[in-house]
Task: inverse folding
């Protein structure tokens, strides 16, 4: 059994760790609220842009747009996967869940997969050190995305995607990230960025606006607009409008995904630090009980020795 001095040192160390995790919890809570606000404010614009694209594509003959690379379904020979993780740890299962789902996708893919890592954890997993077992090649990395809030900051990522896909290097581009639902719940989702399909756009729209809570009223307003039969007049023609619109929508989707991941990261870290703080309190309490028992046993032992010595001297 540990001595009283060792137990007191462990209690002190545990309390110090608890104070650190409590401070990290408070910092993460502030960052989460800011990131959540930015992510939620971006959703209505993203929803509207994708809704316009969905309505446009559903009312035209897609056969006329076979020359548009973002709508042309090609034979898949190589896939590009964007993996959005964090730069820092201590975020619970945030990175593990993303990397596990990315690993599963790569294992089941029917074509070779190249990875663009957004975040240091993804870079470490797929990079030269090969912390993971994924049979994929890391072609690019973008760090410090956890602090991105402006659309201009994510443009290098979407520009790289646009360039590689336009050159025909990849026939399909997907992104995997953590979608923010609430402070206590986040879902890891994987969705197709390019080429655009009506099914993929409907899936994005269904996930981008919450069905209940804050901003849920936006969904109802758009559903009412659909019932009223909104029409779009495209000038000078559909081809030229979509030629300019689709790259812009890629920028929106990438930016939105990173904002969602940022809010999820800070939320996951806040919960992890809260649990760590509570665990530190529980451990300190158990150590305190053990310390008291050890101290009581030591006092009892000393009293027995004193009593035995007194009786020995009295004889």
Result:
């Amino acid at each position: 059994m540990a001595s009283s001095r060792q137990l007191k040192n462990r209690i002190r160390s545990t309390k110090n760790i608890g104070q650190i995790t409590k401070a990290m919890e408070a910092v993460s809570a502030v960052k989460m609220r800011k990131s959540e606000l930015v992510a939620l404010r971006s959703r209505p614009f993203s929803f509207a842009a994708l809704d316009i694209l969905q309505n446009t594509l559903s009312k035209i003959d897609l056969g006329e747009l076979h020359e548009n690379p973002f709508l042309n379904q090609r034979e898949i020979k190589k896939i590009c996967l964007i993996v959005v993780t964090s730069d820092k740890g201590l975020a619970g299962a945030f990175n593990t869940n993303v990397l596990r789902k990315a690993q599963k996708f790569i294992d089941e893919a029917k074509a070779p997969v190249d990875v663009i890592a957004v975040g240091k954890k993804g870079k470490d997993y797929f990079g030269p050190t090969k912390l993971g077992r994924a049979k994929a090649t890391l072609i690019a990395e973008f760090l410090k995305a956890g602090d991105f809030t402006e659309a201009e900051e994510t443009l290098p990522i979407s520009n790289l995607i646009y360039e590689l896909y336009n050159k025909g290097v990849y026939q399909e581009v997907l992104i995997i990230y953590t979608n923010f639902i609430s402070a206590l719940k986040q879902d890891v989702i994987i969705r197709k960025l390019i080429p655009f399909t009506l099914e993929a756009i409907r899936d994005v729209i269904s996930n981008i606006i919450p069905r209940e809570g804050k901003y849920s009223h936006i969904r109802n307003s758009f559903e009412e607009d659909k019932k009223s039969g909104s029409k779009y007049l495209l000038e000078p023609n559909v081809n030229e409008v979509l030629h300019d619109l689709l790259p812009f929508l890629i920028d929106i989707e990438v930016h939105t995904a990173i904002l969602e991941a940022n809010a999820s990261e800070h939320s996951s870290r806040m919960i992890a630090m809260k649990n760590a703080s509570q665990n530190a309190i529980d451990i300190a309490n158990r150590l305190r009980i053990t310390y008291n028992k050890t101290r009581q046993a030591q006092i009892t032992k000393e009293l027995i020795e004193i009593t035995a010595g007194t009786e020995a001297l009295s004889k």
Summary: The longest strand covers residues 172-182. The mean pLDDT is 80.
